[in-house]
Amino acid sequence: MAYDWTGNNVMQKRDDRFLAACIISALFLTAVTIGALLREPIPARQDNPYLLTTDKWQLRL
Fold first, then answer.
1. Residue 53 belongs to what H/E stretch?
2. Residue 30, domain member (yes or no)
C-alpha cells in the first residue's frame, strides 16, 4: 500500500473519492433520465422539413 508522510493510506482515499464520484455521476444521470421521461414530448409539426418517406416506412427525425 502507498502511504504519505503522515502515515495515511493514499490509495484508500483515492478509492473513496473515485467511489463518491461514481455515485454522484450515477445519481445525476438518473435525475436527468427521470426528468427527460417525465417531460411532455414535443408534438411533431405537420410541415416537418425532415420528413423522409418511402414505400415501406416513414421516419420522422
1. strand 51-53
2. yes
